[in-house]
């Protein structure tokens, strides 16, 4: 397994164009999780929390280290990534437009 001193890196790509559903603006949050060496991390848990509504969505990374959310309301999110053998990574202030 991985030493606990290793860090996760999350590359987040925000959907540029919001999806309109019932007059509510939404977007997709997707990205790739890798370790310090650039190796993709499979099975990491990615939690996205809307800071204004406290609604969360959880996704898991696939074999390629990638994850994709369901359509989420636009707003400011805190994104955390956890995987066995790694320190937890938290990014606050991620804006989904």
Condensed summary:
The protein is mainly beta. The chain has no helices and 10 strands.
Describe the structure.
By secondary structure, this protein is mainly beta. A four-stranded antiparallel sheet has the order 6-5-9-10, with no helix packed on it. A three-stranded antiparallel sheet has the order 1-4-7, with no helix packed on it. It is elongated and about 40 Å long. The N terminus is likely disordered.
Topology at a glance:
Layout: E1 8-14, E2 19-21, E3 24-27, E4 29-35, E5 45-50, E6 56-60, E7 66-68, E8 72-73, E9 75-82, E10 89-96
Antiparallel strand pairs: 1-4, 2-3, 3-8, 4-7, 5-6, 5-9, 9-10
How many beta strands in the DSSP annotation? 10
The helix fraction, in percent, is under 10%
Low-confidence stretches: 1-5, 15-21
Query: Could you report the average pLDDT, rounded to the nearest whole number?
Result: 84
Tally the helices: what do you get?
0
Provide tags for this entry.
elongated; 10 strands; three-stranded antiparallel sheet
């Amino acid at each position: 397994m991985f030493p606990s001193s290793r860090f996760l890196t999350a590359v987040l790509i925000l959907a540029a164009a919001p999806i309109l559903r019932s007059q509510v603006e939404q977007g997709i949050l997707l990205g790739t999780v890798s370790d310090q060496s650039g190796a993709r991390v499979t099975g990491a848990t990615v939690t996205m929390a809307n800071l204004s509504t406290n609604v969360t969505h959880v996704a898991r990374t696939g074999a390629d280290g990638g994850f994709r959310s369901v359509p989420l309301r636009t707003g400011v999110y805190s994104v955390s990534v956890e995987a066995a053998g790694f320190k937890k990574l938290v990014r606050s202030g991620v804006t989904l437009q």
